[in-house]
Amino acid sequence: MSHAALSVVRSVFTIPKKEDDWGRTNIFHTYTKIGDVSNKVSIDGGSCMNVVSKGAVTQMNLKPEPHPQPYKVAWVDNISMSLTERCLVPVMLGAYQDHIWCDVLPMIVAHILLGRPWLYDQDMTYYGRANTYVFQHKGKKIVLTPSPPRNARPSHSKESCPPIEQKKPLHVLN
User: Fold this and answer.
1) Nearest to 101 by CA among 109, 110, 113
2) Contact at 8 Å (CB) between 30 and 146?
3) How does pLDDT run across 111-137, given as a tens digit for each residue?
4) Which Gene3D superfamilies is this protein grouped with (predicted)?
5) Which of 53, 102, 131, 162 is the one with CA 20 to 30 A from 108?
């Protein structure tokens, strides 16, 4: 009868996981000024709609109108609500200025969420590692760069731990 050797390896020392770049786990966001009001704008290619928050509509004195094709929006937790209004929202991002139709919803993640419809209309190119959007508008190349989140730390922060060096070899037990 042949016996196979069973090997067990146990890692005694571990190397702490390096902190990910904030751009890897955060969606694109920046700010736009409409009149005297600064508004947070998020761009999310996973969203199938452009949205402006009800609070931003009030704050910017925009005039919502009845949506031509009302529909329901459902969230992950099965909460749904009727979407019945839309609004033409002025947006200025660097050299880009436009008016964008957005559906009006209560939202706290941003004042304006630009999703797949806006990305499609602008024929947007997204560069994932740089977390930038590039497109042509009125014959000009526009590059949108994000604002880092307030809690993002630079990778060279003093709080990050250096890797622990392993001084002794690991042993395989038979």
Assistant:
1) 113
2) yes
3) 999 999 999 999 999 998 888 999 999
4) Acid Proteases
5) 131
Q: Is the dihedral of CA 129, 109, 153, 38 positive or negative?
A: positive
Amino acid symbol at 2: S
What are the residues whose beta carbons fall under 8 Å from the beta carbon of 12, sequence distance 6 or more? 168, 170
CATH topology for 25-144 is Cathepsin D, subunit A; domain 1 (2.40.70)
Partners of 167 in the beta sheet? none
Dump the DSSP string for 122-139: HT-EEETTTTEEEEEETT
What letter would DSSP give residue 102?
E
What the block records as the tokens of 55 is: 């609070």
What pTM was estimated for this model as a whole?
A: 0.72
Strand runs labelled E in 50-173: 51-53, 65-74, 80-93, 96-105, 112-114, 125-127, 132-137, 140-144
